[in-house]
Design brief:
42 residues; mainly beta; two-stranded antiparallel sheet; elongated
Length: 42
């Protein structure tokens, strides 16, 4: 982000592609997308 002159803008979002509940999926198979809104540094 620093190289692109960006900073965080608000809260991040977590999108769970594979849910861990009930614990039938091994931890190494869990998948999550993290989305962080950004803006240009002023």
């Amino acid at each position: 982000m620093e190289e692109e002159n960006l900073v965080e803008n608000r809260h991040h979002h977590e999108i769970y592609l594979v849910m861990a509940y009930p614990k039938i999926v091994p931890e190494e198979k869990l998948k999550t997308i993290l989305r962080q809104p950004v803006r240009e540094r002023l």
